[in-house]
Design a protein that fits this description.
The protein has helices at 14-53, 59-95, 153-162; strands at 6-11, 98-103, 107-112, 115-120, 126-129, 133-139, 142-147, 167-169. It is of the alpha+beta class.
Length: 171
């Protein structure tokens, strides 16, 4: 495999970015971490009610723990509803109307009007594949979107080979 990167320009639409940001939050973040976050909310609630049942009566501690029990689930709903829009707004500033990408056997690169970044394949944690785009996940709050229509076959092949253990096909 060649270290020479395949470079290409990828046009973006606001619709693709909105859909990708929603998919990242709901099909990656909440599928990967959602159960644990919900379990934490349940454990907090059980602990709070157990403390009440056992006779805890320190008003400051009860107010503090009670606030955590109530605000935890509300925060999860807030993140589920608002984060796609926040991610999409950030991506629209970077990618509209287009971005320049490079794919090589060593790294994935992107260049926009705001700057450029080259990420080695070892930093790609997961690749979510959708019919019209790919999402490359670098961390729980960092990802990039790559429209498939603009992707040259050679670059797509490298991407599939380098991320084969991390590809999750989505519908």
């Amino acid at each position: 495999m060649s270290a020479v990167p395949f470079e290409f320009e990828a046009p973006f639409t606001a619709e693709v970015i909105d859909h990708a940001a929603t998919a990242f939050v709901r099909q990656y973040l909440f599928r990967k971490y959602g159960r644990w976050l919900v379990l934490a909310c349940v454990v907090n609630a059980v602990g709070f009610f157990l403390a009440l049942w056992l006779g805890a009566n320190d008003p400051l501690v009860l107010a503090w723990v009670g606030a955590i029990v109530v605000l935890g689930p509300l925060y999860l709903v807030f993140v589920y509803v608002t984060y796609p829009g926040k991610f999409a707004a950030r991506l629209k500033k970077l990618f509209l109307p287009s971005a320049h990408f490079s794919v090589s056997s060593e790294s994935f690169g992107v260049r926009t009007s705001a700057g450029s970044a080259t990420i080695p394949w070892s930093r790609v944690k997961s690749v979510l594949e959708f019919p019209s785009y790919l999402i490359l996940v670098f961390s729980p709050f960092a990802f990039s979107v790559l429209p498939k229509a603009a992707l040259p076959p050679e670059a797509y092949q490298i991407l599939r080979e380098k991320s084969s253990s991390r590809v999750v096909n989505q519908r």
